[in-house]
Write a structure and sequence with these properties.
Length: 88
């Protein structure tokens, strides 16, 4: 199975992500800080804009959204990385 998640990271929905994070994180101040990072403006074609999707944190936090998919694929016998990979 070959899955390309590169575009997924650019379109992580902030509301969905925050609701999933709230299930795992109890600290309201930390959730507020993450929310502020997600709502930070970005420069697109020379103009600052707010986005409802994607952010600098999306690649890191998207793992929370992908956790259920990962577990489902593993339960079906799929591996997300080869077992024979070298560790340092």
């Amino acid at each position: 199975m070959d899955v390309d998640l590169s575009k997924f990271l650019d379109c992580v929905n902030h509301d969905l992500l925050m609701s999933k994070l709230a299930l795992k994180i109890q600290d309201k101040a930390l959730l507020a800080l993450i929310g502020r990072y997600l709502r930070t403006t970005v420069m697109i074609k020379g103009r600052f804009q707010r986005t409802a999707e994607g952010s600098l944190l999306s690649p890191l936090l998207s793992n929370i959204l992908l956790d259920n998919l990962d577990k489902e694929l593993e339960s079906r016998g799929h591996q997300m990385a080869p077992e024979n990979r070298k560790t340092i």
